Amino acid sequence: MFLTVVVPLLLPTAGYILYIIVIERRRARAEETHTRAPWWVTAPWPWLLLAGAGLMGLTLGVIAVTSGAPPHSVYTPAHLENGRVVEGTQGEPAGGEPAGGEPVGGEPAGSAPAGK
Asked: How many CA atoms lie within 13 A of 114 on its CB side?
């Protein structure tokens, strides 16, 4: 419950408080030196865009690494069997062949055993 309810509520609040502290310090420093702070120092948009792009990249990277089917696995699309819809699957084919396409015994497809 803590990670799914409390953290998503407190993290944006902590970020906003941190943002206000930083902006107020920069504003106070600009008033002390009697200069005007550049627009990009006090404007939130460049920082928000940079943070959003960084978080998006991090999220996409984590999803790409931690989810999905193994590389080179075979996708079997949804199809009809005896009038019923069978869901699509991702993984080894139904025939017991590994994802590389060769039979489990290691012999090439279509070759006869050596004794026959």
From this structure: 3
Whole-angstrom CA distances from 3 to 16, 18, 61, 116 are 19, 21, 21, 63
How far apart CA 50 and CA 52 sit, in angstroms, is 5
pTM: 0.42
The CA distance from 54 to 89, in Å, is: 33
Q: How far apart are CA 41 and CA 37, in angstroms?
A: 6
Q: What is the 3-state secondary structure (H, E, C) of the chain?
A: CHHHHHHHHHHHHHHHHHHHHHHHHHHHHHHHCCCCCCHHHHCCHHHHHHHHHHHHHHHHHHHHHHCCCCCCCEEECCEEECCEEECCEEECCCCCCCCCCCCCCCCCCCCCCCCC
CA distance 103 to 92: 11
32-76 residue pLDDT tens = 888 877 776 667 777 788 889 999 999 999 998 888 887 788 888
CA distance 76 to 85: 13
